[in-house]
Amino acid sequence: MAVTVREVAPPPPPKPPAEPPHEDRRPEGPPPPRVATRVGIWLFVGAVTLFFLALTSALLARAEGLDWVRIPFPRILWGSTAAILSSSFALEQARRALGKGDGKRFRGRLQLAALLGGGFLAAQFTAWRELSHHGLSLANSPHTAYFYLLTGAHAAHLLGGLAWFGALVRRARRGQVDPERIADFAVYWHFLAGLWVYLFAVLFL
User: Fold this and answer.
1) Model's pTM, two decimal places?
2) Among residues 49, 54, 178, 194, which one has the fewest Cβ atoms lying within 10 Å of its Cβ?
């Protein structure tokens, strides 16, 4: 009796596991430029903070000396303090306007914040001139020396911030606005405002 033998096909090979969608994969390597920029700004802010902490710690230790004589308070510093805090507030208003898509208000508040920052620097120069007219220089007393040193170092950092501010204002006038760039700058500018309040308290309160 004839027997028919059927050939049985082998089972198909197992399918490889499906790869995750492309957008879920995390690329390896250095962080994106934007993240690196923000980290760099925070590292710089941290370094500047340590620099001023070292100076103010030395001031507080020196203030215990018998030769420590407080200098007269330049009243213009009330004005400079109001200017830097108002500048910081105007910058936040500009950011809020940008988030709402109000370009006109954004540009106006950004320029106002820059002008107030320049006003702060002008007021600091006025305070230095006022002390100079009273014959107070670096060599007069330790308090005078620390006043010029701390306010001068802060003004130098603020001058750099104003140059950055000017570049942002020019880009905004040309319609080249990047919210991330504005946010990067806000970190530095708000830091300078807070740093001045700290220095003001250490020097005169």
Assistant:
1) 0.81
2) 54
